[in-house]
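Hi L., both proteins are below.
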Amino acid sequence: MWGCVSSNETDDSSDHRLCQDLGLILSLSSLFYLIVCFPIGLYYNALVVTVNLCNKVSMTMPDVYFVNIAIAGLVLNMVAPVQLLGPGYTHWATWDFNNEVYITLLILFNISSLVIMYSTTLLSLDYYIERALPRTYMSSVYNTKHVCGFIWGGAVLTSFSSLLFYVCNHVSTKIIECSKMQNKEAADAIMMFIGYVVPAIAVFYALVLILRIRKESTPLDQDSGRLDPSVHRLLLVSVGVQFALWTPYYATLLVHMLSGIQGRHLHGQHLRTYYFVRGLSKLLAFSSSFAMPLMYRHMNKSFSRKLRRLLNKLHCGKQGCSQERSAEQQVVT
């Protein structure tokens, strides 16, 4: 919880002033996100999902992964206002919430982060497979849809550990076995390893393979069935932006985990600085919910065609569009 009101009167005035300044910066940053970034992210995430689901026939493997990321972004959009308007981010908190709401927000946040990171990771690996073996259909749209379902299932199961730690904190007096599970550092370690270390290693490995195969010119490079070259640029930018926005958050988990293991818990000014950095890192993580759909909208060449096709359907209706198609066929004949 952020706040300087509870500071002792013996605190140094300069430390208290610094605490107030950090709180003001975090409050203004939160309000800027809610006023500017939140509506943009909500609109473009919904647009990515709607346009692609209305053009299922023309969807490719990267489109499926970006739809999956957009759905996770919508979940982050739901979590962001509740959390950013709470007492942990603003001096003028709109509401306060109890532990049940806090743990629900934490679980939804963890699920979204896992889905985003693993969708980006598997997009990198499937892109390499598509580049190396374009006609094997190992990375087909059909298979990718099932993979995305497994991603959500795995994210839910992994985040269930947070719920387990929370339940044990409330019933530990009745269940002796739960006393061994009252360790938030263990939950942070699970999220750090599964949510960041594993995807980072897999993405690095995939990028090395992709860069290696791009240096080798083969006759398959002229295959018309291969993915659009713009997908390569979109992939590199997406991976870079995702890890740039999520690394600070996982770094704060690492700091909290190491300080807890060593028994040197943060106090005073160090604790307030940690909360400030953690708040900014979560803001950066929330920012991925509008950065990704924006990049996809402007870097994917086929998305504009799909959007125009959907707008034409909404404008002229099925009957009008069929008449236009018949008129076009007459002109061709």
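That was the first. Here is the second:
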Amino acid sequence: MLFDRFDSNRDGSISVQDMCDFMAGIGLEGVNDGQITDMFVEADKNQNGSIEFDEFEHLVRQIFSDSIMTYSDILKMDIAKLDGMAELKNRLAEARATAMANPGKKIERVCLIVVVKEEIQPVLDKFNVAPDPALTADLLSLATAYRGSIDGVYDLTVLQVATSEVYGRHYSGYTQSSAVAAMAAKVIQPDLVISFGTAGGWPSKVQVGDCVVGSGCVFLDRSRTSSKNSFDWGVFGGPTMPCGQMVKDLGLREGLLGVQINYTVTKVHTHLIDCLGLYAIDMESASEAQILMQTKTNFMALKVVSNGVFPGDGARMEADYVKHKEMVSKKAAVVLSDVLEYLKNKTVGQLAEAA
């Protein structure tokens, strides 16, 4: 059993030296003595100087879920520390300043990209949004298309990412959403694309039920280590259009969004979250921002916080999502309805901060 791999002398407990020997034995020399000691002290709940079997689970979680395990991870943190990610934040701000296309144009076509349609079903019912098989075919069935009108003022197209025929689950994550965003820009040519859904919230910034409008989007698990420039390039997702006036009028929150494709938040992720001041984490917005930046399509990321972000404890994050799912779905429907109503008779530029 795994406990015995640590307890090399078979005395029924694990010492700091046992930990060092184990990590060296599986090639984790990048973890320094200070980090090993910190993990040991945190796991040693009865403070007797050794780890017994009943304390072992926490130790394993520290090592494999919430620890700096490799030299590459240490290097990533060191690169991020060089300027606290200030240059990347500046580049995102500069990109956002020019991210608005056709500010004087009245909003006539809005495209909403979602993963879970059920979260917004009351809104679809309210505005009589119906399936559009022809558009679905035009989009190569990468998404199921629904169309309707917001009180006859502008057209709304809802694109739900396709479902896997093999596993029967929605294609969440980078690849599908970026493909759908590209197809939407080409086929629908909307005045505005909104990425809508739920996200994990960073507890010091937001609470469950808050709605966050992304001020920009970054990748948390696409980092490079050859140079600071390549590191920033990997993290950089893309800007969102300025919409400060809408945020103010509707009482929403605004902040940077991070993206990763699983529920595990490591110390490297945590360090990036802190450096960048992220508000929430989803699985799609950065890839959508990256594509729509290139197509010069107005893009807004609108996320309702469904759970907390708990480093090293993905199971807790999933459980938190399930716990709040019903309440968050109701809140999401209200927020989305308010936003869609707000867009009526607005120009693109009117969503931004008033001059």
